[in-house]
């Protein structure tokens, strides 16, 4: 009887020891795993950037729960709980890193898009400038197309050709063409009356004649002309003051006149007849009674 009681006590002790190894009670590691997994589940970045890592953590926790429900070993349950917590933490770290990388990529893409937009705008401005320049050139070409073309004056070669037959053509008229008229100005002395009793006109005339004669006796050439003018003005001044109370004086007066430029000869316009037709030619020297021409009536010198 005593031996049977001892056997039962040993059996109970073995079962108790076996039960304590399988079900130690509530494990803090398993609670920590559930908290970490719940925090990862509530993080929106995890669902977007780390869904695979989250599923691995949830799978480890489910296996731990399954072992608890089936009376699995404590050390296996604890190991799965630690794996679940580590993977849940990793899921959040990976989600944060990938989120920051995505934000950096988005910022870089936005910068690239802005640079591309600026480049496109500059290219558009350059294209507009090129189009405006092309339009300006087209307008200029159009104006040149409708503008009257200036035909240069033909250049004739009046030299005689080898073995060319020449003929005499009578000259019918010759006209000397001179340059355009010129304006010439000079300064002369003019008598001015400062009183009210009138100028002694006879005295001024006589004085001017006598003064001019006296001045003409001085010098020669251009100097003689100047002396004549000065003498005439001085004599007129003296004669005008004869018998007057108020004095008469002279002042310089500029006078101008348009005169023909007779010394500036441009060319000779020559008209001649040949073969029943009238021809014209311009020469630098006066022609004779006739000029030499070829069979076409062109002058030959």
Would you write up a description of this structure?
- The structure is a single chain.
- It contains seven helices and six strands.
- Helix 2 packs antiparallel against helix 4 (51-69), helix 4 runs antiparallel to helix 5 and helix 6 packs antiparallel against helix 7 (221-240).
- The relative contact order is 0.10.
- A hairpin with a 2-residue loop joins strand 4 (265-274) and strand 5.
- The chain is rod-shaped, with a radius of gyration of 65 Å.
- It has helices at 2-22, 28-42, 44-49, 51-69, 74-146, 201-216, 221-240, and strands spanning 167-178, 182-193, 248-259, 265-274, 277-283, 290-293.
- The chain has 301 residues and is an alpha+beta fold.
- The protein starts with a helix and ends in an 8-residue tail after the last strand.
- The strands form two sheets. Strands 5-4-1-6 form a four-stranded antiparallel beta sheet, with no helix packed on it. Strands 2-3 form a two-stranded antiparallel ribbon.
- The chain has three domains: 13-104; 161-181 and 261-301, no CATH class; 185-259, no CATH class.
- The longest helix has 73 residues, at 74-146.
Describe how the helices and strands are arranged.
Blueprint: H1 2-22, H2 28-42, H3 44-49, H4 51-69, H5 74-146, E1 167-178, E2 182-193, H6 201-216, H7 221-240, E3 248-259, E4 265-274, E5 277-283, E6 290-293
Antiparallel strand pairs: 1-4, 1-6, 2-3, 4-5
Helix pairs in contact: 2-4, 2-5, 4-5, 6-7
